[in-house]
Amino acid sequence: MLSRDENDLPIPQSTGVTVTRQVKNLTQDPTYKSADFFDKCAVEPNFKVDKEQITIQASKAPPPTVTEDDLTIPDFFLNDLTPDEIVKIANQLIAFAYDPLNVAHHLKDLDMVLGKLMEEQQILPSQQNSLPNYLIAGRGNYIPGAPPPDYQPLKKGRMLDTLLLERESLRDVNKHGFIVKFIGFVSSMIADRIVSSGQLFNENKQVNRVLLHGSYTHRLLLEAFAHAIEKGEIDLNIKSEKKLNFVQLLHILVSVKAKNGQSLWEMGLDSVDDSQRSSNAPLDAKQFSFSCRSPFVFNSLLLCFGKELGLPNLQTYMLDSHYKAAYEMVLRSKEKMAKADKLPHYSEIDISNERIYERCMEYFSIMAESYGEVGGNTPFTIDELAMLSDERYISSMWGPSVRMKISSPHKPGVYTGWMEFFQSKSGVKEPIPNQSKKHERSEEDGEERYGKKR
């Protein structure tokens, strides 16, 4: 059980997790314009590289709290709850998310089950074959470096999504057995209605900085909340001798607002305030906050330090998703370069995937105007309107930007390499002379690295 203070709030764990990493540091460039991106890709980055000791722990400053006077509580909640009870629940969740070690602890059960599923499907590569050799210090959080040179992307069959749906349905959340995906901007009114109905969502990572925000981030933090509630470390008991169920909790999170307009959802699961308070230089890694109230920070912790936090399988799974989403951006960049240079195929662009990846992460980091920015366009992401024509999705009852995926998941397996992955995503046919080369190395390599036998 967690230690608690005089207000019965969890006390953040004081012992941090310390790791040493090679870190590429970026420099803010006020002259950088969107039109410069492709010229930047043509030049090898000259980022400063330092070996850094990183300690992951909650800030020594206490977590923020709310009071009854801070909140506007809809009257219908007061039939069963007192304002004090709502304040207590809110402060427990904020304090919980503030402590990265506590959040990680309550995801270890999920990590173990996910690892077993990946092992059964023979798609669990060694950490050595999947972890990046360095990190990038982005805007307010670390970003994984480019994948190792011999990395083979995975076909995971939506394994994590299925596992989360199974667990969520036990709490009457996502009980219809599917998840909706937000494609670009969704108004807070629509999002609040979706969540209060017991429906959660993923987010599309091909729209601007959502890649760094993460698609599963909110669901994973809610999963950690749920596990802590089951273990009695978050108390939902109320004076009416009832206990809030999870759907009621979701309804409270999106319906109770602070006087500044922020909902409890935003304060507990979607706030960059801790990052803003901890730093006056967004690209200075020494000032990074590790509070999981920020989805950008929480996603970064899972991608960059999952193994050290006791979540190696979540790290492997989510890193693969990150790599593939980022390399869709690399592919898009190469296709645009090939078109500009009047080349017949993107494979004729003589710029490494790794360099373009780094330039994309640099763009995300130095072009963002705020820690929490996710909107807007970049040269290598997809316009929100273009996403609406994606035939893999159909509109939901919530409107065109809230969509349901109808395409079938891949059978679990392994791509032979990035070229096969690119071909699965590109509408540009590969030149015939390269077809035989594409598969030359892969069959034996895949079997050897993943222990698979046909």
Describe the model:
The protein has 19 helices and 12 strands. It starts with 16 loop residues before the first strand and ends with a helix. By secondary structure, the chain is α+β, with helices and mostly antiparallel strands. The protein is 41% helix and 11% strand. The radius of gyration is 22 Å and the shape is globular. Strand 4 and strand 5 form a beta hairpin. The strands form 4 sheets. The chain has a 4-stranded mixed sheet. A 4-stranded mixed sheet has the order 8-7-11-10. Helix 14 packs across helix 15 and helix 14 (312-340) packs across helix 17 (418-425). It has one domain. The chain has helices at 37-41, 83-98, 100-105, 108-120, 127-130, 159-169, 188-196, 210-213, 217-230, 246-255, 264-269, 273-278, 295-305, 312-340, 353-367, 384-387, 418-425, 435-438, 442-450, and strands at residues 17-25, 48-56, 71-72, 135-137, 142-144, 154-155, 180-182, 201-203, 257-258, 393-396, 399-405, 413-414. This is Ankyrin repeat protein. Residues 426-454 are annotated as: Disordered.
